[in-house]
Design a protein that fits this description.
This protein has 376 residues and is α/β, with parallel strands linked by helices. The protein contains 11 helices and 15 strands. The chain binds nicotinamide-adenine-dinucleotide. One of its GO terms (molecular function) is oxidoreductase activity.
Length: 376
Amino acid sequence: MSKLYRSSRRKFISNLGLAGLSIPFANTEDLITSIATKQKNMPLQKKLGIALVGLGGYASGQLAPALLQTSHCYLAGIVTGTPSKIPVWKAKYNIPDKNIYSYENYDQIKNNPDIDIIYVVLPNNMHAEYTIRGFAAGKHVICEKPMAITVADCDSMISAAKKANRFLSIGYRLHFDPYNLEMARLGTAKKYGDIKKISGGLGFKATPHQWRLQKKYAGGGPLMDLGIYVSQGMCYTTGMEPIAVTAQEGKKTDLQRFSEVEQSLTWQFEFPNGLIGYGSTSYDDDMNFLKAEAEQGIFELTAAYTYNGLKGYTPAGNMQFPLINQQAQQMDGIALSIKNNKPSIVPGEMGRRDVKYLQAIYEAMRTGKRVSIKAD
Ligand code: NAD
């Protein structure tokens, strides 16, 4: 790691809680401690057992392999509607029969002391139901992003967590990624002065899975799936919440594929100090960046939201951080907060806030008008 980034991180750690970092980074200490792997003083009680609900691309490609690298949690169980997947998962992850569930007997998980945390990795419209049932079973829940497809669903999920007295976290891996944390640190500490312009984009030319193109399942198009990261990036880099938004739907060149959801979308967040945040997302164009143009220079990530291979630049040089497994950091960070009975740094309230922003962007897109975003 370069000298610059060793010293900035030390400063960041020493400035914890003083840098105007609000909800998203309220518990940054745990986070940085985890990233620095300084876990010596943490309680070393048993690893918490996670059950993955939905064994699709993300669960099988990223989360399950990451759970082989975690220190505070492990893959204890699975919930699947596809029996043919069971032998493979059993063999690969050494999962006992008693920890394997279907969607039908899922609620019986309440009787299983091996499972501490349920991780919902289903299509977006199923997040609310399986999260609420997870809380009814007395478990903690991690729910993938977007938290749900309506704010009302988010409210029900938060209420269920409170009623069960269990933690709800959203699968926001970038809150555990050093490059994105560095953007937040530089922006909120005003390292290069006030930010004069912020922009971000995430998109790729892909044939997404079928459910992602169906409004009923996905709640929308690339905004729900990818644009959510851009919206978040602009908030944690500026340390501000938008007060209004305007938005424009991109031209549809593939009317068949995009009959129900947008193909691409641009939006402009208005922040309280007059700063404008320019966001874009697409299932058609390649883009992956988060760029802050400040009084004394530009700091940015190009490849901002990928699992690895992120690149960051600042007026003082290139960012250099050790390679980490974002998902392992994220799940360990969340497990650790549960063990220590501390609030999650990626709580349901943050997921709800983001769904509220996405809904405001869609309303602005539909109406062509500036839509105010009320603080809760
Ligand atoms: P996927 O289509 O690969 O997997 C979805 C799983 O849900 C499959 O196992 C499927 O069998 C199961 N399923 C159960 N009922 C279903 C139904 N009625 N219709 C369709 N599938 C059904 O999707 P994915 O890419 O794994 O995404 C799952 C969730 O994870 C989404 O909410 C997505 O936004 C999120 N995700 C997050 C990240 C991240 O980086 N945090 C990355 C990818 C996906």
